[in-house]
């Protein structure tokens, strides 16, 4: 340090620096607020056309109608809901137990080496585009089901739902595993101290302690299955159909049209009446509300469980 | 606990501990974990078989390549895995870098062919550089005028790139010039520097412009990076010099080898340069040098295999996924169908997303992590934003498509199915993912860094720009690349905004109607012809998955490096 160093001018302030700092803050706040804007515009824009639709079609008829035929201006949501329900139930039957079992394995049993292979592998499952899953279902799974003797149609809900199920396994497993890993080790030690086996500790201590996290992952996965579009568009056919309650098994082998698939079909159809086109927004709004409520519910459950251990 | 011995004081029957049940449970859980993986792997094998049709080749061809490529590489991989893990990583990176480099090369080549000429690129970049120069010069001349600088920062790029809108002053100039009998062809507006360059009667050849605006800057950046790492200015200059020399050499030698000069320059910039820097670093450190054998063996194996099969006359397979598929447009006949225009559409859509979603997403993450108050009315608002972002991440993609349809096409009246609409709709879809991953990256920057910066008298924004963002950048990049991977594969929003089922000509502007890769694949999926269903479709799926695989692998490499240093 030589003495000739000019004394820094610490009293002067660059003019406008404070203003500039404030401006950055507001610009960044604007970015963050953009996400609210997205939600608001989804609601407003979907509601705008949905309201036009509901002024012409009685909402009660819409939500209770058992036939959906745009060409005859019949708009009943129940056939579409049947498709969505079937996809959700079948894929849940596949994905929920598998996902939880996978989470148990990864969190309780897997060696570090196994985990380092299996976890990225499951991440890959989540990263495959859904249109590819749809093609798997249509081109490879359906012929396979036919080959093993199931009476499935070319377009059927079963193969689509199997692929939806496989697609949502990683979602269940990763969220459930997080929940299980955050169960404190002292609980496990207490279990072992009581003379319980690993199996008993896992099923009797860890899984119940992580139950709310697992449950929240279930709900998110269901919401994902409800909103899944491309798999059902490619593989589940384009015929809205009511559930056949007299012969439940036969339902699996037929084609259905879930809500998402109907939206795509209405939008890409060549000639659709104005009313038919606005029905798109009514279905879309219904779908948005269902998934939004499920996500909120899942967040609630997850938030409550987080309080338990922290 | 299989080895537990019965002890004194153990009062239960030994059969109370049921080993079988525990083992069965563990096996079931493992099977469940593997179920999804194995079934998707099997399906991928089927698709790959349809796309490449390896068994349409002679048995001799397959045997030759198995002997020259597959067996040596597998042996090397086992060796790395068992004995020499650092070499394994070197092998992974040296094989991956050229692939990523070639992918980038392809992306830029597509850009220069379809979107803007090299001259337009040159003009745009020069204008931006001049704007940057103006900003820096202003900072030097009037370092304290912060607000004034803000105006310069905003206006300089606009003036150099877009010019000035018509104003009274410009009318005056133009009228005065007209009165004097001069006609510049500029009516009532001041043209930008960019436009001025485009009008120049004499311009350098393409390769000189590319060398100046693409090769040199990136080589300079690499040189700077090396200089920082090694603290040796000479090494940095060597990198720049060697890159330039190789680039110029290729320009001279390129025509002899049949490689276009532009393509050569891109390859040098994106593949040769990073590979060279990395390999040199490996050799210098002397760690995992054996890993370099992997790519060498691979290339040698392919060459030897080619010579042998050529000499013995073995016929190769006839894959659906070949060069013709990647470079031609779709067609009614399966044999001629290709994915090129859809790939261009996807590349341009990604550009729109990067330019719009990335800044907004990172900005939102910075606000939420660095500025957001946790109390009061604003605190409530911020909590609302956080919850909302979480929920947006769970909104079905088809709803985002509907939003795009309603907002951009029905309200704003933008062209249906155009790239800009597709990019914005898909961009909105990945916005929450970008925000959440950027938030995580920013959160992982230790607070002591910030305190140190504040202690030095830095303002909050200075701290963010100089300390937090550089530190969080690898994490942000990883998250963004993964999100872009999601964006490339999204199909439902494209269907809702009416992206073209298939186009014959690649789009040339962001307002053109285009098809994107997944959209094109979806159109093929409704063809009933088996040669589409088990050929073209499979080739399209493999192309899409290959792009995704490369992107994800890149993201994972960045993440691993970052975790080690961080």
Automatic annotation (TrEMBL), chain B:
Q: Main localization of the protein? A: membrane
**UniProt cross-references to Pfam families, sorted A to Z:** BPD_transp_1 (PF00528)
Q: Name its cellular compartments.
A: Cell membrane
Q: Which segments cross the bilayer?
A: 29-48, 60-81, 90-113, 119-139, 146-164, 207-225, 237-257, 263-283, 292-315, 347-368, 389-412, 418-438, 536-558
Question: Which residues are in the ABC transmembrane type-1 domain?
Answer: 343-555
Q: Please provide one cellular component term from the Gene Ontology annotations of this protein.
A: plasma membrane
Q: Which InterPro entries match?
A: MetI-like, MetI-like_sf, Phosphate_PstA
Q: What are the UniProt keywords, alphabetically? A: Cell membrane, Membrane, Transmembrane, Transmembrane helix, Transport
User: Which one of the record's GO molecular function terms can you name?
Assistant: phosphate transmembrane transporter activity
One Gene Ontology term of the biological-process aspect is:
phosphate ion transmembrane transport
Q: Does the keyword Transmembrane helix apply?
A: yes
Topology of this chain in the membrane: Multi-pass membrane protein
User: What NCBIfam families does the database record attribute to this sequence?
Assistant: 3a0107s02c
Q: Which family does it belong to?
A: Belongs to the binding-protein-dependent transport system permease family. CysTW subfamily.
What name does this protein carry? Phosphate transport system permease protein PstA
The species this protein belongs to is Haloarcula argentinensis
Gene assigned in the entry: pstA
């Amino acid at each position: 340090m030589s003495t000739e160093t000019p004394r820094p001018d610490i009293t002067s302030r660059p003019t406008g620096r404070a203003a500039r700092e404030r401006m950055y803050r507001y610009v960044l706040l604007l970015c963050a607020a953009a996400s609210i804007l997205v939600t608001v515009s989804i609601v407003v824009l979907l509601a705008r056309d949905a309201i036009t639709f509901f002024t012409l079609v009685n909402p009660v008829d819409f939500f209770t109608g058992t036939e959906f035929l745009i060409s005859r201006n019949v708009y009943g949501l129940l056939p579409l809901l049947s498709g969505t329900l079937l996809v959700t139930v079948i894929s849940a039957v596949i994905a929920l137990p598998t996902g939880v079992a996978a989470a148990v394995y990864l969190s309780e049993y897997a060696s570090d080496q196994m985990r380092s292979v299996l976890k990225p592998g499951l991440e890959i499952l989540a990263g495959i585009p859904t249109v590819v899953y749809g093609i798997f279902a249509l081109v490879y799974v359906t012929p396979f089901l036919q080959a093993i003797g199931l009476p499935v149609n070319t377009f059927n809900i079963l193969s689509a739902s199997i692929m939806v199920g496989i697609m949502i396994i990683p979602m269940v497993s990763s969220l459930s595993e997080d929940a299980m890993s955050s169960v404190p080790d002292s609980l496990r030690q207490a279990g072992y101290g009581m003379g319980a086996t690993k199996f008993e500790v896992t099923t009797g201590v860890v899984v119940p302690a992580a139950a709310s996290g697992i449950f929240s992952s279930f709900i998110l996965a269901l919401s994902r299955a409800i909103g899944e579009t491309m798999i059902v568009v490619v593989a589940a056919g384009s015929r809205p159909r009511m559930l056949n309650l007299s012969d439940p098994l036969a339902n699996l082998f037929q084609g259905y049209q879930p809500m998402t698939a109907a939206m795509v079909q209405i939008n890409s159809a060549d000639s659709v009446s104005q009313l038919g086109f606005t029905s798109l927004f009514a279905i879309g709004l219904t779908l948005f509300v269902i998934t939004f409520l499920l996500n909120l519910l899942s967040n609630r459950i997850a938030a409550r469980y987080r309080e338990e251990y922290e | 606990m299989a080895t537990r011995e019965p002890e004194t004081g153990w009062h239960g029957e030994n059969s109370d501990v049921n080993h079988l049940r525990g083992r069965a449970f563990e096996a079931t859980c493992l099977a469940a974990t593997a179920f999804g993986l194995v079934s998707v792997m099997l399906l991928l094998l089927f698709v790959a078989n349809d796309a490449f049709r390896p068994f349409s080749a002679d048995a001799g061809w397959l045997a030759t390549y198995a002997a020259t490529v597959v067996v040596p590489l597998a042996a090397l991989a086992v060796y790395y895995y068992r004995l020499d893990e650092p070499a394994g990583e070197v092998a992974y990176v040296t094989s991956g870098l050229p692939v990523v480099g070639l992918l980038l090369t392809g992306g830029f080549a597509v850009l220069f062919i379809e979107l803007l000429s090299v001259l337009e690129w040159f003009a745009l970049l020069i204008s931006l550089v001049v704007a940057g120069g103006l900003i820096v010069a202003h900072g030097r001349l009037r370092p304290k005028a912060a607000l004034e600088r803000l105006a310069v920062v905003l206006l300089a790029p606009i003036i150099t790139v877009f010019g000035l809108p018509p104003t009274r002053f410009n009318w005056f100039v133009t009228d005065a010039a007209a009165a004097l009998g001069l006609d510049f062809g500029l009516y009532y507006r001041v043209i930008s520097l960019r436009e001025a360059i485009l009008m120049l009667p004499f311009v350098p050849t393409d390769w000189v412009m590319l060398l100046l605006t693409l090769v040199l800057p990136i080589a300079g950046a690499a040189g700077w990076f090396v200089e920082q790492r090694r603290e040796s200015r000479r090494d940095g200059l060597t990198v720049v010099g060697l890159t330039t020399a190789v680039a110029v050499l290729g320009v001279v030698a390129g025509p002899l080898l049949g490689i276009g000069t532009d393509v050569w320059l891109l390859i040098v910039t994106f593949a040769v340069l990073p590979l060279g820097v990395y390999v040199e670093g490996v050799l210098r450190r002397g760690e995992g040098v054996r890993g370099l054998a992997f790519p060498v063996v691979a290339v040698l194996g392919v060459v030897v295999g080619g010579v042998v099969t050529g000499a013995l006359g073995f016929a190769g397979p006839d894959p659906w996924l070949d060069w013709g598929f990647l470079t031609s447009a779709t067609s009614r006949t399966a044999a001629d169908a290709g994915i090129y225009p859809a790939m261009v559409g996807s590349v341009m859509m990604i550009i729109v997303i990067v330019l719009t979603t990335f800044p907004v997403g990172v900005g939102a993450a910075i606000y939420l992590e660095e500025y957001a108050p946790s109390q009061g009315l604003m605190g409530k608002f911020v909590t609302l934003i956080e919850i909302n972002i979480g929920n947006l991440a769970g909104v079905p993609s088809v709803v985002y498509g509907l939003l795009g349809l309603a907002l951009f096409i029905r309200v704003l009246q933008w062209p249906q199915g155009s790239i800009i609409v597709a990019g914005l709709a898909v961009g909105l879809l990945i916005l929450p993912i970008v925000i959440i991953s950027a938030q995580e990256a920013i959160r992982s920057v230790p607070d002591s860094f910030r305190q140190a910066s504040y202690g030095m008298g830095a303002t909050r924004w200075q701290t963010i720009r100089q300390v937090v963002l550089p530190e969080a950048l690898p994490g942000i990049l990883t998250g963004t690349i993964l999100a872009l991977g999601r964006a490339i594969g999204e199909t439902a929003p494209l269907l809702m905004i009416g992206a073209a089922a298939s186009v014959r000509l690649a789009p040339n502007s962001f307002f053109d109607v285009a098809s994107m890769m997944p959209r094109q694949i979806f159109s093929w999926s409704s063809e009933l012809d088996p040669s589409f269903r088990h050929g073209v479709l499979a080739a399209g799926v493999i192309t899409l998955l290959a792009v995704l695989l490369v992107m994800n692998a890149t993201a994972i490499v960045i993440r691993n490096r970052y975790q080690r240093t961080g």
